[in-house]
Amino acid sequence: MKFFYTILCLLLVTTHLHAEAVTTTGSAISVTANTGVDPAPGSRQLVQEHFRTITRNANASNHPGFIVENKQESLLKEQEQVSNQRAPLWKPAVEVAAINLLFMGYNRYVAKADYAYVNFDTWKHNLSSEPEWDTDEFGINFIGHPYQGTLYFNTARSHGYTYWQSLPFAVAGSLTWEYFGENTLPSYNDMIYTPLNGAALGEILHRLSSNILDDRTRGRERTIREVAAGIVNPVRGLNRLLQGQTFRVTDEDLYENEPLNLTVFAGLHRLNTEENDVFGKGKSNSMLSLQLDYGRPFEPVKRQPFDFFRFRAEFSSGKADTIASRINNVTGYGILAGRNMQLGRLSLLTGAFQYYDYWNTRNFELGALGFGGGVFSMLELGNRVNLFTNAHLGIIPLAGNSTRSAPDVSGFRNYTFNTGLQGKIESTLALSDHATIAFVYYHFWLNTFDGIKGNNSIGIVRPRATVQLYKNLSLGYEHFGYATNRRLAAYPNQKSVVTEQKIFLQLFLEAPQRSGGYH
Fold this sequence. Notes:
Elements: H1 2-20, H2 44-56, H3 64-83, H4 90-110, H5 120-128, H6 138-157, H7 163-180, H8 188-212, H9 219-232, H10 234-243, E1 260-272, E2 282-294, E3 309-316, E4 327-343, E5 346-360, E6 365-382, E7 385-402, E8 415-431, E9 435-450, E10 454-461, E11 464-470, E12 473-488, E13 494-511
Antiparallel strand pairs: 1-2, 1-13, 2-3, 3-4, 4-5, 5-6, 6-7, 7-8, 8-9, 9-10, 9-11, 10-12, 11-12, 12-13
């Protein structure tokens, strides 16, 4: 668990530094809200005050605070364009090629992997052959490759390109790697999963590094910020060094920064050994979970990709030999486009979202790329009592799903490739800062197109309750239920329900928005 505690310490340090740099401004309204499972205790008062203001004004866009803030945004965006102008196309293109060469050199001369020995003959064979659905390990395909995609994406993003302008570089990096980086056949799944989820995760890392960076700082604080941002986003860290920005000092905050909340969960994870037994015999492991909530979902702003997102990763200890096998799940969503509305006490955000799901349970393994529509709402029920709800329905163009006890027809892979649909709902009743009651349900409908023929219905339910102990520290309990129904063409149908419980301490850390940051 040392790796996870290192990441936790890094996030805690950067959140503290971010909070230190905050100053308040009377002319601009900044609102943060945790809108999924755990609304942020420190932000609920701001949310309520903000929406009382909106209710009193028939047209929120005419509120002086929004007018002043928009003028500041325009000025700061001009400053950002001057200080971080978009580089010529050849610069990110060269970096994409350099990343692939670096991976190729490591795989061949350090790891000495069989697939790394490439030459003109292997390139010719790959170019003249039809791609395949590969047999890589599940964690490599659904965790490792998306991270590789972030590196391609951020070659352009750190050179001043927008999200949509950076996406083609992730596609190009993946394609060139598939055809020239290995002597195995190019794989369809990598050419889809690497760039699309790589762009999503890459934008998340770009925005997190922007919240860490502050060119107004000097000395020890500046060093910590630059190192932390470089760890979060290595490509950006390197480009800042090459561009001379690492040691640049300015009087203005030049980087995008939205409100960022970090919630840390630590406790015990109990795994029931008997199927279909809600509270059966089992064993307990230590667990650690990190949740990032970024952006202002209920403030009327012009939406940009991933200016609002949630990212959560859960880990547990055990006898596992690899980091990937200790990951319980990694989930997240980010807005691609959206619109805000206000209906009395009901605040709404509707939009198009991208979803990422990785689940490693005793019942199944699931990795899914999704796109769909979502609705976020906040209903003010009383004095400091709010109901937060979000619901989603989306398509899954590509997913991987474990085969459980039935062998895969490939003979090497223990999972199938699928397309399908997904539905998600998260609802939380926040009783002031004292307690929360939450209900979360995800459902995936998957149809296999490569592997054992059939389809699979997966349901994940996770009710949760927390009680405040002291300020931002709470005690929580969460119950997990994993239900699968595999309907297979050549094998008996398989139904299974597995349950788990988690009891934990929850620490909420809110990093307010820095003065001067644009949106």
